[in-house]
């Protein structure tokens, strides 16, 4: 362990970048935090190492001051990228070794290292080894195989590992909000704003960075996300909590229906906050907090969806199971007719009911109800009640709700 005045790694003269929110679109600035509550023992940083031709930030590190338990969920795309394959192996090895192994997550943007053959796997390993050396220079505590890697960007191009290695030589990390923001900016590809979130819960804190704007669909899409917590969680508890949380957050969003090659959501828990969480009420509290946090983080991805003009929340109640409810919601969310209706501010609610009907879930049609809820907290508009349409349709109220950005 090392003291709280630990050094930052830097190269004299290396250009840093501004994280002033003014550089991002005015409509998105309300989603960018200006301060945060970050978990104990985690440090962040980002810089430009030259992968992106425009010179924008493209390299980030999130580092724990002690070995952390790690769990991750990956893309189900059969062309999964080299970093996905590498991280899967590393985390499985960590489980076999007893859990707490991971010290850092190294992320690059601008090159996905996907569909790159055997060399892609070699490059992912070299990137991880560069991360291990970074941690060793920081505090001398890294061991081989302690750095996860994530890549996002153009598919089918070789990863310029030498640029990542050089970038890590000059990258600085710290615990301040601006350092976390630098890392979040470096995650961006087609994103229009950095997606950073932090929350303090009773007994522990959580912070996370995600990226994604296109190819977003359940079962993971072009999403990278790293979530750090100082909760003291066992490997089994973290695996269970993440599986539960991701089904209700990142696997419950859709923008364009495409699924990517690189998606990874990883959670690191370094235990700096205290009491061990394994099962019982403490586990449920942690699981539910992680779920709420990840749902909030996933919402930022939808906010930045390529071409998105609306943020639609689909809430399904009265289903026989969570899986049935999710299937109905997903069918509605991916319906082209429903999307065009919301885009055109058209109160053709029959399109929604039609999607519910072909979702493949057994229905009691005489009990179905449907309402539009405005995002401004105003009165909802009931459309269907106990299987019967509420007539006549209040078209004025429908128009008022549908012109809003947020609708449920």
From TrEMBL:
What molecular function terms (GO) are annotated for this protein? L-glutamate N-acetyltransferase activity; L-glutamate N-acetyltransferase activity, acting on acetyl-L-ornithine as donor
Q: Which GO terms describe its biological process?
A: L-arginine biosynthetic process; ornithine biosynthetic process
Q: Which InterPro entries match?
A: Arg_biosynth_ArgJ, ArgJ-like_dom_sf, ArgJ_beta_C
Tell me the CDD domains matching this sequence.
OAT
Q: Which Gene3D superfamilies match?
A: ArgJ beta chain, C-terminal domain, L-amino peptidase D-ALA esterase/amidase
One Pfam family in the UniProt entry: ArgJ
Task: Give an example GO cellular component term for this record.
Answer: mitochondrial matrix
Keywords tagged on the record: Acyltransferase, Amino-acid biosynthesis, Arginine biosynthesis, Autocatalytic cleavage, Multifunctional enzyme, Transferase
Q: Which NCBIfam families match?
A: ArgJ, PRK05388.1
Family to which the UniProt record says this protein belongs: Belongs to the ArgJ family.
Instruction: Tell me the protein's name.
Output: Glutamate N-acetyltransferase
Lineage runs: Eukaryota, Fungi, Fungi incertae sedis, Zoopagomycota, Kickxellomycotina
Gene for this chain: ECM42
């Amino acid at each position: 362990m090392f003291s709280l005045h630990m050094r930052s790694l830097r190269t004299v003269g290396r250009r840093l970048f501004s994280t002033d929110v003014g550089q991002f679109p005015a409509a998105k600035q309300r989603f960018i935090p200006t301060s945060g509550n970050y978990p104990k023992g985690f440090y962040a940083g980002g810089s430009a190492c030259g992968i992106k031709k425009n010179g924008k930030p493209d390299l980030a590190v999130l580092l724990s001051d002690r070995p952390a338990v790690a769990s991750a969920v990956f893309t189900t795309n059969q062309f999964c990228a080299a970093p996905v394959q590498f991280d899967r192996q590393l985390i499985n090895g960590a489980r076999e070794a007893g859990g707490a192994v991971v010290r850092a997550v190294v992320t690059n943007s601008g090159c996905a290292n996907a569909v790159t053959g055997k060399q892609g796997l070699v490059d992912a390993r070299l990137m991880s080894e560069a991360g291990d050396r970074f941690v060793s220079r920081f505090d001398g505590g890294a061991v081989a195989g302690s750095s996860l890697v994530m890549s996002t960007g153009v598919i089918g191009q070789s990863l310029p590992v030498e640029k990542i290695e050089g970038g890590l030589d000059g990258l600085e990390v710290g615990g301040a909000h601006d350092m976390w923001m630098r890392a979040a900016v470096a995650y961006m590809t087609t994103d229009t704003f950095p997606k950073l979130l932090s929350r303090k819960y009773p007994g522990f804190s959580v912070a996370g960075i995600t990226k994604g704007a296109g190819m977003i669909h359940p079962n993971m899409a072009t999403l990278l996300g790293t979530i750090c917590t100082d909760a003291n969680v066992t490997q089994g508890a973290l695996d269970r909590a993440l599986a539960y949380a991701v089904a209700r957050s990142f696997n419950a969003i859709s923008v364009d229906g495409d699924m990517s090659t690189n998606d990874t959501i990883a959670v690191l828990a370094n235990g700096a906050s205290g009491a061990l969480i394994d099962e019982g009420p403490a586990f449920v509290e942690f699981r539910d907090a992680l779920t709420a946090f990840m749902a909030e983080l996933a919402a930022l991805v939808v906010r930045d969806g390529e071409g998105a003009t609306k943020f639609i929340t689909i809430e399904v109640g009265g289903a026989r199971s969570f899986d049935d409810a999710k299937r109905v919601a997903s069918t509605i969310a991916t319906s082209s007719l429903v999307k065009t209706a919301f885009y055109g501010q058209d109160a053709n609610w029959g399109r929604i009911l039609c999607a519910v009907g072909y979702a493949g879930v057994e229905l009691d049609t005489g009990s179905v109800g449907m309402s539009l809820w405005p995002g401004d907290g105003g009165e909802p508009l009931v459309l269907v009640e106990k299987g019967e349409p509420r007539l006549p349709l209040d078209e004025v109220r429908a128009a008022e709700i549908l012109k809003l950005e947020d609708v449920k």
